[in-house]
Amino acid sequence: MSILDLFSLTGKVSIITGGERGIGLAIAKGLAEAGSDIVIAGIDEQNLETAAEEIQALGVTCMAVKTDVTDEGQVRDMVNAVCDTYGHIDVLVNNAGSGRGKAAEEMSEEDFKWVMDINLTSQFLVSKAVGNVMLRQQKGSIVNIASMSGVIANNPQPQCNYNTSKAGSIMLTKSLACEWAGRGVRVNAINPGYTKTALIEKRLSNEDPILEDWLRFTPMHRFGVPEELVGAALYLVSDASSFTTGTTITVDGGYTCW
Ligand code: NDP
C-alpha cells in the first residue's frame, strides 16, 4: 500500500456536525474528495440542502439530516438513520459550535450553559451515539474540533464560557481516547486559531479594531481559511494516523507560541 492510499477514504461513511458551512463544510468537502460518503448534521435546512448539493457534485453521496446536536433524542435519530442507510459509520467530526462572549461578572447562567451545551455537551452526546456503533464495528475515528481557546485565554475579548468549553473538548478527547483505545476507536482533536468564517465575519465586515490585536498576536500575521484545516482532519480520520489517539493538532498560524 502506498503512503497516499493510507489517506484514502473510499468506501467510508463520515458524519460532520455543522457540515453545512464554515470549517465543517470545508472538512466535509475534503473528506468527500478523499472518497468518503458524507452525512452533514445541522439546524438550518436551506444551508443543509445547498451544502449537500455542493458535496454530491464531488462524486459521493451526501445525506443531510436536520439535527440539533444538543438534543440527545435528535442525535440518536440521526445516527439510526445513518446506520439504516449505510450500515456503518467510519468517521465522526464533531464540528458544530458557537460563541456568546461577555465579561464573566456580567455573564448569565443561561449564556454560560448555552455555549457549554453547543460546544461540549454536544460532542459527548454525538460521540456516545456514534461511539456505540464504532465499538460494535471495532473500528472508527472521531475528531473533535476544539480551539486554541482551549489552551489559552483569548486576549482582549472576555469569553470564559467558550474557552472553558474548548478546554473541556480537549479533555473529552483524551478521556474517550483512553476508554476506547483498546477497542479500535481513535479520538483526536484539532485546535483552530482565528479562521475566516461566520464566527468572525461580523468583526471583519465592521473592520473591528480588535482584529489588529488578533493579527499582532498571530506570528503569521493573517487569519486562516477553513480549507487550511482539511489536511489535519484528513490525517486524523484516515489510516495514515493509525497509531495516533488522544492528541490535538493545533492549526493557528503560531498564535499559541507567544
Ligand atoms: P460557523 O458559525 O460558520 O459554523 C458553525 C456550524 O455549527 C454551523 O454549521 C451551525 O449550523 C452548526 N451548529 C451550531 N449550533 C448547532 C446545533 N445546536 N446543532 C447542530 N449544528 C449546530 O463556525 P465555524 O465554522 O467557524 O466553527 C466550526 C467549529 O470550529 C466550531 O466548533 C468553532 O468553535 C471552531 N473554531 C472556530 C474558529 C474560528 O475562528 N472560526 C477558531 C477556533 C475554533 P447551522 O448552519 O444550521 O446554524
Q: Which structural category do the helix and sheet elements fall into?
A: alpha/beta
**CATH-wise, what's the superfamily?**
NAD(P)-binding Rossmann-like Domain
Order of helices and strands: HEHEHEHEHEHEHHHE
Relative strand content: 5-15%
Q: Count of helices? A: 9
How many discrete domains? 1
For the largest beta-sheet, the strand count, sense and barrel status come to: 7 strands, parallel
Give the strand order, joined by hyphens, for the main sheet: 3-2-1-4-5-6-7
Q: What's the level 1 CATH class?
A: Alpha Beta
Give the distance, in angstroms, between the N- and C-terminal Cα atoms: 40 Å
Gist?
This protein is an alpha/beta fold and 258 residues long. 45% of the residues lie in helices and 15% in strands.
Describe the model:
This protein has a single domain (3-250), classed as 3-Layer(aba) Sandwich (Rossmann fold). Helix 2 runs parallel beside helix 3 and helix 2 (22-33) packs across helix 9 (230-237). It is built from 9 helices and 7 strands; from the N terminus they run αβαβαβαβαβαβαααβ. The relative contact order is 0.15. With 258 residues, it is α/β, with parallel strands linked by helices. The model has no long low-confidence stretch (mean pLDDT 98). The structure holds NADPH dihydro-nicotinamide-adenine-dinucleotide phosphate (NDP). The site of NADPH dihydro-nicotinamide-adenine-dinucleotide phosphate (NDP) has 30 residues, from helix 2, helix 5 and helix 7. The site of NADPH dihydro-nicotinamide-adenine-dinucleotide phosphate has 30 residues, from helix 2, helix 5 and helix 7.
